[in-house]
Amino acid sequence: MTELARIPRRVPGRTRPTSYSVASRKSFTSSTLSVAQFTDPATQATAQRISDLIDEDIKREAVRRQSERRKEVKVMLLGQAESGKSTLQKQFQLYHASHTLEVERPSWRIVVYANLIKAVRTILAELDYEFSLSLDEYPWTSEGSAPTDVSAQNEILELRRNLLPLISLEGSLLSELSEGISFVGHRRGTLFPPRKGMFTRSGTRPVTDLRDSTNAIVAVNRAAQVLGMTVHVIEALWRHRSVEHMLRARKLRLDESGLFFLSEVRRIAQPDYIPSTDDMLHVRLQTVGVIEHSMKVNTVGGNYIWRIYDVGGTRSQRPAWCSYFDDVNALIFLAPISAFDQYLEDDPLTNRIHDSVELLTSICANKLLKDAQLILLLNKVDILRKKLESGVQIRQYIVSYGNRPNNYSTAAEYFRTHFLAAHKKKDTFQRRLYVHFTTMLDVQATQIIIASVEDLIMRKHIVQTGLM
Ligand SMILES: Nc1nc2c(ncn2[C@@H]2O[C@H](COP(=O)(O)OP(=O)(O)OP(=O)(O)O)[C@@H](O)[C@H]2O)c(=O)[nH]1
Ligand SMILES: [Mg+2]
């Protein structure tokens, strides 16, 4: 079975009540139990009573459903893979249900360890490639000669030998994260397939499922132990002149999460390590499927249940999104504008900005979503700033950028205009598109944006439901 085939068409527990639906009532009265078809007055009276009871039930059900809808807000987080949807979901959780994040904290260790080991493995693989280049092939730079001499190679060989016990644990951590089934190796992320209990109303957190798994506990404890023994080796690798050269001169880029965890390895390797909020926001765990997270939101007009849908963003998963488009109040679309020099993992010819624009326009044109509010978050602003400061030229990747200055303010305005223009062209429902620049790892700034976005969504929701 393919991954997509396993994605439920609808969220269990979210289907409309069917016992006395209008559709079933119609068929009931017209064919089975039309009161007029009984000639005996006593039977007719009984049939009339039953029919009246059904009518009352239908009315009650409609009122119940309407008041439920008044108190429910459905929000979808959309965007390409690695745009920051799950990170935003955690920020929502932090804002409204920080106690649940507290409970989850220890469970995130497994992902932190897996991300860290993957970063180490990636560095070693890149060094392999580096050392395999002949002198003619080596990209000589103004930085001077490459430290790929025999002594550097021998030092790396020794570090690698010492790191093997740690690297060999990656498989068992990943297997626990994917429940040992259908794990698909992925270059950039840890793959997380849908599992039982993910689609719950209570907003069950996937990693917390692992709390009671003996195998997961064993794998995490083993990783913690080996990490404690190898932390100095990781640091030596990270500081090694060949690695330093590779990152600087060849501008090799590791995952953002990998870089962060490598720089924090000493803290992470402590025996009593518990992930900090920052760590939980930095982890990379690829979502597969659609995950519903529910939280109570106390806002203008009382208490509401917010149902936030976090989706997997790879191309192959996008067709599954539309099963969830019914009754959506708002869409929060994330576009990582730092990705102007990157291409899709599952389509290496498509620039990631181009993909984001196309995806947004197809969502704007979707009739099922015509009543949904649209919010666009131009995300990963921190990385965009760093890239521009280090001299990466936008026009090399996006020709239409032309000769504009390669600085942050010009680039940010260019991307904003670009997305707004695409929306204006395709949104036949003439909705307003609300735009914010975000760095999803910045808690304080993101919480301010969440408050403003919520206010916007709630105001429209109250107006809409007031008219119902
Ligand atoms: N530096 C930086 N990193 C970010 C930002 N937003 C998200 N990230 C990181 O980017 C990586 C991917 O973020 P996710 O939230 O997992 O992305 P996603 O959209 O859920 O991806 P899929 O589940 O594959 O669709 C994670 O390691 C995040 O910590 C940001 O604004 N700045
Ligand atoms: Mg995700």
Q: Can you give me a brief rundown of this structure?
A:
The chain has 468 residues and is α/β, with parallel strands linked by helices. The chain has helices at 22-32, 41-70, 85-96, 98-104, 109-132, 150-167, 170-177, 214-239, 241-249, 256-263, 265-268, 277-282, 352-364, 381-389, 408-426, 443-466, and strands at 72-78, 191-192, 286-287, 290-299, 302-311, 330-336, 343-344, 347-351, 373-379, 433-437.
CATH topological fold name of the largest domain: Rossmann fold
The SSE order reads HHEHHHHHEHHHHHEEEEEEHEHHEH
Low-confidence segments: 1-32, 180-205
The helix tally amounts to 16
Q: Assign the CATH superfamily of the largest domain.
A: P-loop containing nucleotide triphosphate hydrolases
**Can you tell me the CATH architecture of the largest domain?**
3-Layer(aba) Sandwich
Question: What is the CA-CA span between the terminal residues?
Answer: 42 Å
**CA-based shape:** globular
GO molecular function, one term: G protein-coupled receptor binding
Binding site for Mg(2+): 86, 287
Binding site for GTP: 82-87, 281-287, 379-382
Region (Disordered): 1-23
